[in-house]
Amino acid sequence: MAGICAGQLMVILDGTIVNVALPAIQQSLGFSASGLGWVVNAYLIPFGGLLLLCGRMGDLLGRKRLFITGLGVFTGASLLCGLAESPAMLLAARFLQGTGGAVASSVTLAMVVTMYADPRARAGALGVYSFVQSAGGTLGLLLGGVLTQTAGWHWIFIVNVPIGVAALALAVRVLRAERGTGLGAGLDVPGAALATAALLLAVYTIVGVSGHGWNSVHTLGCGIGAVELLIAFVVRQAKAADPLLPPRMFKGRDVPGALGTHTLMICGMFGFQFLAVLYMRKVLGLSEVQTGLGVVPVSLLIGLMSLLFAPRLIARFGARVVLLVALALIALGLGILGRISVDGTYVTDILPATFPLGVGFGLAMPSLAGLAMSGAAPSDAGLASGMFNTMQQVGSSLGLAILSTLAASRTGTLLAGGVTQAGALTGGYRLAFQVGAGFVLAAIAVAALVLRTPRPPADRPTPPPTDDPRPLKRDAASA
């Protein structure tokens, strides 16, 4: 478990640690204003596009093998990023880094679930995994500021190397080897190609919205192409003998409901990780390190809830009930941020939102992870893990595109009306937070209407550990 979490933390950190260092990277390597965004996009596109395929490959070839391969590629690419001396070299290394991150991340949730058959032990493991997933992005903002200010931007990449080497050594030694079902079990090559192309093009379209606009020929053309590829993939799945996405994955309502809820929640919550940082930097005037420290309360609360309270609450009340309460808290936190003011302070405008956001997200992620994996047989666990991580990546990219576009549009309108720069920025961020709260309210509606996980009886005894797989399967399905 330690090896899995160390590797996953390294990958998650990289998603946000770069954001703080972008100005320093631009000045050092001479990126243009339009080209600078590709330091992020070159990582996001392969990462989001390859998760589903890599998850299925983990089921066929062995998840440990794929995890170690992905970690090795990611670690080597991180070193190349740190040594980059030109924009082209950095972008190529970032693309390779995103590829390695996708290979490693696609199977992590599957390995966690298959390692722990007992429902209570699995709930605790999912809490640890969810903490790494949730708090890693926030920690990246803090480390990015500290490393950029003290050691230089190169070190935000080089720091991954010793972590990656340690994670690799631990994974090779500790993780149980598994053979996988083998390629003979069936890999739908045309379906895999269509799904990967559709996801790559979809993520490319979304991340390009900020530069091209929603109504541009580029966005509409690429978006239509992604939809056509997705339709072709669905048609292929209906005809394939061994489809990439077997229909058995969607027999119940919990898996599709959890995936839809997860996507909407991430769309809304991502506004905090991105827009709250901009508000603290551009309106409140906080330094990079102060901004990183400003989001630490959320990470601490996420850790407290996901590690200590979420497993107990899920075992007592069921994942669906815990999830609904958690989503309501997230919506409340974003609603508080929707009232930020131009003359506000961190204590009055940001800090009050950190409690409901941290508690809510810390409870929501373990609940969603358990629900999303509830319908997966051991032979499909990697695919289910890939789907869960894909929806998280698509949700974050889509949420960022929508919320940042709305904020920029509102800011431009206010500036044209004579409002001050700080006032216009605040008005844009306020609108984005309110829309983000709307996404989470939509997630509540989906969870309430679709999910049907029953509440476990309060007097249900804890099943003793056993080597018989049949009761473990039955308990895991009801967890």
Automatic annotation (TrEMBL):
Highest classification ranks of the organism: Bacteria, Bacillati, Actinomycetota, Actinomycetes, Streptosporangiales
Record has Membrane as a keyword: yes
Annotated spans, Disordered: 454-479
Record has Transport as a keyword: yes
Domain Major facilitator superfamily (MFS) profile: 1-455
Location in the cell: Cell membrane
Bias kind Pro residues: ranges: 454-466
Name under which the protein is recorded: EmrB/QacA subfamily drug resistance transporter
